[in-house]
Each structure stands twice: as structure tokens, then as C-alpha cells.
Amino acid sequence: MHCPFCRHADTRVIDSRTAEDGSAIRRRRQCPSCGRRFSTVETSSLTVVKRSGATEPFSRDKVVAGVRKACQGRPVSDDDLALLAQQVEETLRSSGAAQIDAHEIGLAILGPLRQLDEVAYLRFASVYSSFSSLKDFEEAIAILRAERADRGPAGQDDGLTDGSADLGPAGEVEQAPTH
């Protein structure tokens, strides 16, 4: 590490600490030549390989922007989206690879998004997985229902029921008659 003051080719590490939720290391350094101290922050780089073959640095902001579209009109806060992006980045970094295919990012998003909001998950999955028919949606909903049945008590409203409400001609919800 070159000293930023005198450009001496070697510096000495005085102290090291984790920073930014453990994703970076902050090092306090001292130059043996001029004696001045300075700090450096070291992060591992994560590069995304796009379908075209182009590469770019991983960006949590791009994850949030993509997921935000699926969450429009849903009860999902900006903090929820930031946490999801952090989870996605941690998952990708835990693979140990310096380069990640863009496709793998989409796969890493699906799990946390499913836990966050099932409707947003279906929206994202329909675009990401290129749903081409109603059958694709039905299969995804059947999987969600099966998972919900495995983990929760019966009789709870899963928001994925059919026949309880229908859209009327103007798009308003019409309740099914109860007898």
C-alpha cells in the first residue's frame, strides 16, 4: 500500500476492524517514511456477468429497483427492500465466487422475496421465470399453498384462495354470496 502523502511504497497496519456490517475491513495504517497515519477500507469485489457477456459491479440498488416493481401496491417498506438486498448480497458472497451470473442473482432474490410477500414473489417469478401461461401461475400458487400448509395451522386465510371474491365489470371486488 503506497502512502498517500509521500508515496512511499510500503506502509504498516496498526489496527484492523470490520466495517459496514462485516462486508468490509477498515485498516489504520502508518507510513514508516513520513510517519503519517491514514485509513483504508477493503472490500471484496463482486462482479455480475450479464447475459450479453458484459460485466459490471454488483449493486444492491439494482436489486432493490427490480424488486420494488414487483412490490408496487404491496405492504412492503423501503427498509424491507434494503434488508432483502442485503440478504441477496450475503447469499451471493457466501458462494465464494468473485463473478456471479445475472441469472444467479434472480435465483437468490426468489427465496427472500417469497418470505417477504407472496404476491410480489409471484409477480417477480412470472417475469424472471418467463411464465407463458396460466398453468405456470397455477403451479407456482400450488407450491406456495403446499408450503403454507406444511408450516402453518389450517384454516388461515392465505390470500391465495379462489372463489371468495370476484372482480366485477369495473374491476371492483364483489363478495361471493354467503348462505
Automatic annotation (TrEMBL):
<keyword id="KW-0479">Metal-binding</keyword>
<dbReference type="InterPro" id="IPR055173">
    <property type="entry name" value="NrdR-like_N"/>
</dbReference>
<dbReference type="GO" id="GO:0003677">
    <property type="term" value="F:DNA binding"/>
</dbReference>
<keyword id="KW-0804">Transcription</keyword>
<dbReference type="Pfam" id="PF03477">
    <property type="entry name" value="ATP-cone"/>
</dbReference>
<feature type="domain" description="ATP-cone">
    <location>
        <begin position="46"/>
        <end position="136"/>
    </location>
</feature>
<dbReference type="GO" id="GO:0008270">
    <property type="term" value="F:zinc ion binding"/>
</dbReference>
<dbReference type="Pfam" id="PF22811">
    <property type="entry name" value="Zn_ribbon_NrdR"/>
</dbReference>
<comment type="function">
    <text>Negatively regulates transcription of bacterial ribonucleotide reductase nrd genes and operons by binding to NrdR-boxes.</text>
</comment>
<comment type="similarity">
    <text>Belongs to the NrdR family.</text>
</comment>
<keyword id="KW-0863">Zinc-finger</keyword>
<dbReference type="GO" id="GO:0005524">
    <property type="term" value="F:ATP binding"/>
</dbReference>
<dbReference type="InterPro" id="IPR005144">
    <property type="entry name" value="ATP-cone_dom"/>
</dbReference>
<keyword id="KW-0862">Zinc</keyword>
<protein>
    <recommendedName>
        <fullName>Transcriptional repressor NrdR</fullName>
    </recommendedName>
</protein>
<feature type="region of interest" description="Disordered">
    <location>
        <begin position="151"/>
        <end position="179"/>
    </location>
</feature>
<keyword id="KW-0805">Transcription regulation</keyword>
<feature type="zinc finger region">
    <location>
        <begin position="3"/>
        <end position="34"/>
    </location>
</feature>
<dbReference type="GO" id="GO:0045892">
    <property type="term" value="P:negative regulation of DNA-templated transcription"/>
</dbReference>
<keyword id="KW-0678">Repressor</keyword>
<keyword id="KW-0547">Nucleotide-binding</keyword>
<keyword id="KW-0067">ATP-binding</keyword>
<keyword id="KW-0238">DNA-binding</keyword>
<dbReference type="InterPro" id="IPR003796">
    <property type="entry name" value="RNR_NrdR-like"/>
</dbReference>
